Amino acid sequence: MQSDSGNTAAPNSHTASHKASQPDITGYRTEIISDLAGIDSAAWDALLSRQPEATPFLRHAFLHALHASGSACAETGWHPRYLTLWAGKRLAAAMPLYAKAHSYGEYVFDWAWADAYARHGIEYYPKWLSAIPFTPVRGARLIAEDEQTRRLLLEVALALAAESKMSSLHILFPDDAEADLMEEAGMLMRHGVQFHWTNGGEGTEPGGERYASFDDFLATLSQKKRKNIRAERRQVAQAGITFRHLRGSEIDDDAWRFFNRCYRQTYREHHSTPYLNLDFFRRIGAAMPQHLLLVVAEREGQRIASSLLVYDDAPEVSTLYGRYWGALEYHPCLHFETAYYQPLEFCIAQGIRTFEGGAQGEHKMARGFLPVATRSAHWLAHADFADAVERFLVRERQGIDAYLDELGERNPFARS
Fold first, then answer.
1. Which one has a higher pLDDT value, 401 or 17?
2. Global pTM?
3. What span, in angstroms and rounded, lies between the C-alpha atoms of 203 and 370?
4. CATH code (residue 295)
5. Are residues 38 and 119 in the same domain?
């Protein structure tokens, strides 16, 4: 197998075996795809639907919209290099893969690693990255028709990384089963923390009883948390702000243009450049409307804020994902209402099991979200740096474990 570009580096001791021997791909053809338009969307989505943790962000329409809109493309430092396995003309396995020229838009931060490489006169970029651009959502990364093919796909990816002249391979936010597979293959594991809300409360099993109403949810929280949430919601209501939930085809072009203004305003206030553009939002609105919810805040007949959410309503694993929000005018607690409380109302009304509110944010715990551990997998070609990173990750993991213990002591739910 051949890769595109990069600089030579020594193989790391953890995965040297992947360089020494080629995976047995008898019966399969490997191909690197630079344009998803070259893969039939129905074939891609059919393969995706067979994964234990498929998400809407891996749908052909979502990924293709990122590339076709110019949001995640070669010009922005995301070079699509999808790794695929074919059995004849049948797509048997696929992996979202990019040659990355930077580390923006990933949410697993390796800037310090890149800086260490630079200080030693070694090129860190380009690197291989398997992730959903700008989307820190856990889910399948090794899309395959069976477990054997999934393992083979990972072997091929590691062989590609070892044979290429690129510094490293990073697989971000895989599901638990895949993360275990990557660790078994010798990849270095990095741990992180997100905050998720569960419909029915802490420890609710899939298919378990859901909340009947928002008040039902509030009743499970400690008195202080319950009182604070009611006070926050009251502030928004007393400001005369009301909300509409637009789903699917109800999100017309005027609504997309308004949302885009809100989205860009958020980035402007943080003195940064937005990753996405109006063309991207229009594309997903046309191609996958059944997965989209737009919450719109209005005051005195004028729209003032909005949040965009993506949801998957598969039985027993339904999840709402908070993605982007913005406001054109400031009101106390408007962010909490638009980006958290209104989506929670939607989850309860629709029986959606989980709400993932986005990256980071301890403040979510005060609103009924609980910490969830995440993992990412890493392979570095340079042996000395791989050893140093491994030692760093051991120390970091200890810090993450202590952090999770600390968060556990701040559980927002009432003690039974």
1. 401
2. 0.92
3. 11
4. 3.40.630.30
5. yes
